[in-house]
């Protein structure tokens, strides 16, 4: 599963591509149970009532969730069996099979940097630049990639594995640096938006990758992004992420 690393080794576990770890949490006292909020005052799909995603040890109620402070504004729907992982304003995820080698995570991140040939994350501002940087990371193996067209929003998909013997750093996000452990795989979909570079990710074990995709698929198909905040989209309607656009990744 992925770990967040700051200047010192870290505090919060981001489960997208690593092995067993303590239950994901963020520093501070446990947050209260989710409460109903308005997902957005703008387009219809994001204006529907949604639950605010909060960190906590208990399983999440089935329903539609958002993170009010996250930009671009988006909503997604989950069934039973999901838990909140790391939850911050710039990064959050939901997980299944927590504390197992096959932990599954669907993650959302505002990307601040990408780890490339150098050990320190480099600043990137576009999906294309991020994809190029990921290719240059010697700790990762790119196993698949494709273009993504989601309504009027265009993006790039990159799938990586860690075939080494130590954690591989991948992305810099607000909570720290995301890394994936040996034997883990990470599907990264990158999008240019008016609010910066957005990454939607799926993490799981290499051994159970097909199952990871089948569990994550309903969540991915439910995602709606506020298209008014999408730099590549001229549309005024929300953009729905379609799992079909990533079909090459399912081989």
Could you characterize what this model shows?
It is built from 3 helices and 18 strands. It has 251 residues and is mainly β. A 7-stranded antiparallel sheet has the order 6-7-8-16-15-12-11, with helices on both faces. A 6-stranded mixed sheet has the order 2-3-4-5-17-18. The protein is globular and about 40 Å long.
Q: What are the SSEs and their pairings?
A:
Elements: E1 3-5, E2 36-38, H1 44-47, E3 49-52, E4 63-66, E5 74-78, E6 83-87, E7 91-96, E8 104-110, E9 113-115, E10 121-122, H2 127-135, E11 141-150, E12 153-161, E13 168-173, E14 176-180, E15 184-193, E16 196-205, H3 209-222, E17 224-225, E18 239-240
Parallel strand pairs: 3-4
Antiparallel strand pairs: 1-14, 2-3, 4-5, 5-17, 6-7, 7-8, 8-16, 9-10, 9-13, 11-12, 12-15, 13-14, 15-16, 17-18
């Amino acid at each position: 599963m992925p770990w967040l690393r700051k200047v010192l080794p870290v505090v919060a576990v981001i489960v997208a591509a690593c092995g067993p770890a303590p239950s994901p949490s963020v520093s501070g006292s446990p947050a209260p149970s989710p409460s109903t909020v308005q997902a957005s005052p703008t387009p219809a799909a994001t204006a529907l009532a949604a639950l605010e995603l909060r960190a906590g040890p208990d399983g999440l109620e089935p329903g539609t969730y958002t993170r009010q402070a996250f930009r671009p504004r988006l909503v997604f729907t989950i069934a039973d069996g999901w838990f909140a992982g790391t939850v911050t304003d710039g990064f959050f995820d939901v997980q299944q099979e927590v504390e197992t080698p096959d932990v599954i995570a669907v993650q959302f991140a505002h990307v601040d940097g990408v780890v490339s040939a150098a050990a320190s994350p480099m600043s990137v501002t576009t999906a294309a630049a991020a994809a190029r940087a990921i290719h240059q990371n010697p700790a990762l193996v790119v196993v698949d990639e494709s273009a993504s067209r989601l309504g009027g929003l265009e993006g790039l998909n990159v799938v990586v594995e860690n075939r080494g013997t130590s954690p591989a750093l991948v992305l810099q996000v607000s909570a720290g640096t995301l890394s994936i452990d040996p034997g883990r795989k990470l599907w990264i979909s990158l999008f240019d938006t008016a609010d910066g570079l957005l990454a939607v990710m799926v993490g799981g074990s290499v051994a159970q990758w097909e199952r990871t995709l089948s569990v994550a698929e309903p969540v991915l198909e439910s995602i709606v992004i506020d298209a008014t905040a999408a730099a590549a989209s001229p549309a005024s309607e929300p953009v729905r992420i379609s799992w079909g656009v990533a079909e090459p990744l399912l081989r």
